[in-house]
Predict the 3D structure of the following.
Amino acid sequence: MNFNKAEFFTSYGRLDQFEESSIPEVVFSGRSNVGKSSFINKLVNRKSLARTSGTPGKTATINFFYVDGIYFVDLPGYGYAKVSKQEKKKWSALIGGYLDMDRDIRLVIQLIDIRHNPTQNDLDMINFYIDFEIPFIIALTKVDKLKKTKRELRIKTLKEQFVEYGNIEVVPFSSETGEGVDQIHSIIKSICLSE
């Protein structure tokens, strides 16, 4: 599987726009400003396939990228305080509606900033994946922002917080240094290329 063979496919802002799912989908989920666009760009070795924004809460659509036979699906970031309640409800319905569709979702990569504890929204998403038996892993973003000792302590603390959810795979990741890219590539390949 060649992750460099990536292109923008389409965006959906309403559930009635979705076409049927025909190929495996890998979904990227996380709060606003967790680094989802940078994460996707690093995986496909591109600077701006997924648009990054300095304004949190800007992505209000579900964006699909075609990556050598599978879709990368970028969900809108959640939890940004300055977005109206009406907008939050719309996003929630869109994200929940997408995850509830009959689609070939092989994996959700739940992104959490290593520097912060998971928010209630993060935990709600994790519980949703468990309840609906959607396979997922956790990627700890922005690991390059911490010095080694602090970073190891944060990884240990976060893993302990996730213990109650069972044996969740946790991958430290940096869009700056590329740490974690090979591991994420391997996980995606093993899940998407196996029938």
Notes: The longest strand covers residues 105-113. Strands lie at 6-12, 25-30, 62-67, 70-74, 105-113, 136-141, 170-172.
